[in-house]
Amino acid sequence: MNNRTVFYKLGMVMALAVAFQACKPKINEIDNNQVVSKPYVLYVADSAGAIYSTNDGNIYKFVFSSDNWPSRAVASSGNNLFFLKNNWHVIEYNISANSNPMGVVVNPLAHPATTVLDWPKFKRVYMAAALPSSVPAMIYQDSNGSIYKAWKAETSTAFTSTTLITSFTMLKNGRAFAYDDVNKALYWSEDPINTQWAGGATSLPTARKFFISHIANTLLAIADSADIYYSTDNGGTWNQYSGLPAGAKVISVCCPFDQTILVGLLNGGVYRLPLGTTTFIPASIGLAPGCTVTALSAKYDFFKNDAVRQYVYAATNAGLYRSNDNGENWVKVIGTEDHKGGFTALY
What we know:
Layout: H1 11-20, H2 32-35, E1 36-38, E2 42-46, E3 51-54, E4 61-64, E5 73-77, E6 80-84, E7 88-92, E8 99-101, E9 105-106, E10 116-119, E11 124-127, E12 129-130, E13 139-141, E14 152-153, E15 167-170, E16 176-180, E17 185-189, E18 198-201, E19 210-215, E20 218-223, E21 228-231, E22 239-240, E23 250-254, E24 261-265, E25 269-273, E26 281-282, E27 293-303, E28 308-316, E29 319-323, E30 331-335, E31 343-346
Antiparallel strand pairs: 1-27, 2-3, 2-31, 3-4, 5-6, 6-7, 7-8, 9-12, 10-11, 11-13, 13-14, 15-16, 16-17, 17-18, 19-20, 20-21, 21-22, 23-24, 24-25, 25-26, 27-28, 28-29, 29-30
């Protein structure tokens, strides 16, 4: 897969979509195309390697057909869609319909869902990966990840010879963070064009593995087991949330609309952090018992009557689920009885 280019034709999309509409769930929903002024787009990856898109959670269209290489993450920048299989691929909607490897080496230590940072303000995309001929801290491109433009190594006097970024996130205030889990170092920038990235060592436990995320302007560090730390001073000091089961493994996180933190567990469903608290509680009502939640994603619709509706999706090994109340309750929208295999990534 690393060395081959996968091609498909746009003309196949509608034909394949017809076949997949047999999976349309029996849910009494409105037609987003008729009443929504700005519908969302959700990308869903399955364990057979296919990627679908939907703007209502009911009808799904093929974006990329099955190739038996499951995607571990999906992301986008501008009009380009990225997906991570053995390496990163890009579908350039503004140029062609072809999916091509991006010519960069994936950092094997990076957390898949946080490996890419899209920075629309500067039309720049960062990746926690290495160029084929070197091992920079991180690489970037100012062309939305196009396969036709070269990636560049980000340089900063704050980086050391061993710096290797493993995850990214961006706060609501626009400050971007890059985390090096090998050296437990945190870097940040508000303007990568005119200033260098700054930062250095953190006080996070050195014996643990972390990836970073955020809720509003609070920075999160998610450990490889049942520990999640938070910082309200840009990583200067850290406190710890409680409530997750002992030994639980957190593999996905989402902070829908800055109203709660949802974490997906390996064989443990979803846990939720109620706003204003520091203790996680179970939030798996409607999910298959003991399911693995590989990805979480929040979406919203702007209706023509000025109403706003919010949704959260959960990709699991037991199907695709949706919540209309920020993760308190879930409804299956695609099950394994309709679609063989589970789901591996969302965007």
